[in-house]
Amino acid sequence: MPEFDASMLLSGRYHDMLLAGLWLSIQLLAISLVLALPLATCIALLRLSPFRLLRGVGFAYVETIRNIPLLAHMLFWYFGAPELLPEAAKQWLYAGNTEASCAVIALTLYTAAYMAEDIRSGIRAISFVQMEAARALGLSFLAAMRLVILPQAMRVITPPLISQTLNLWKNTSIATVIGVAELMYQAGQVESASFRSFESFAFATSAYLSLSLLITALAAWFQHRYPPRAL
């Protein structure tokens, strides 16, 4: 039975490859989260709009995105969507880190669809009387949302959004199918080069578990510090 060789995880080329993969995974998480949150808020407001056409646009987005697996999203945005771009835009895209850019697009759009539903549910938890009162004071729909409804809904919305962040972190591993050199990709590369399967994937598993537990602890702390209130 082969012994666990921890030295390859502590220093050397394989150590650097795994750390580089972990750092890229964290970057995918951070960038996708920053982009997904405002997009999800816009989609949620579309879903709650008083205009039927806008509600329909929001509904179509959420149902379309959520009913397609993330793997299909990832493959479409990498292999399919760039072919639809003008030649200049295509050249610009291919000049950079195309794999990572396409992964961010797929993760952002996919995560935003789920976050939008969490935000919509949180907004609907606020008594409609408050919206009526805000409108009676002369505020527009968007101003009432921004100044009255959303600040109160944040306490309800934040715990499920943290859960979606946890899902987003785990979903970054799917980017390996389009060649993004994130953590799972680098673990596979290390395993192929060193034939040390256990050590390489133990590092990847530990990294995913550690950050997941950190996000879960953050959600638990928030719920304890800011429990939902009757609104």
TrEMBL record:
Membrane topology summary: Multi-pass membrane protein
Residue ranges crossing the lipid bilayer per the database entry: 20-46, 58-80, 92-115, 136-154, 201-222
Keywords: Cell membrane, Membrane, Transmembrane, Transmembrane helix, Transport
Coiled coil feature spans: none
Entry superkingdom: Bacteria
Residue intervals of the ABC transmembrane type-1 domain: 22-219
PROSITE patterns for the chain: ABC_TM1
Protein name in UniProt: ABC transporter permease
Organism of derivation: Advenella kashmirensis (strain DSM 17095 / LMG 22695 / WT001)
